[in-house]
């Protein structure tokens, strides 16, 4: 049973690592290339 679990976990980790190293890396590169910021410039805070 432990051998099967380790085999299944290894296969799952291989798939996750493959996704993160290729698919997600491509996606991230495309998202970072978009000229859009999630944050707006904010002025100083004051009571006046």
Could you name the key traits of this structure?
48 residues, mainly alpha
Structural summary, described in words:
The structure is a single chain. The longest helix has 32 residues, at 2-33. With 48 residues, this protein is mostly helical. It is elongated. The chain has one helix at residues 2-33.
Query: Helicity, in percent?
Result: 55-70%
Question: What is the general shape?
Answer: elongated
Percent of residues in β-strands: under 5%
Structural class: mainly alpha
Termini gap: 69 Å
Order of helices and strands: H
Cα gyration radius (Å) = 21 Å
Layout of strands and helices, then pairs:
Elements: H1 2-33
Quick structural summary:
With 48 residues, this protein is mainly α.
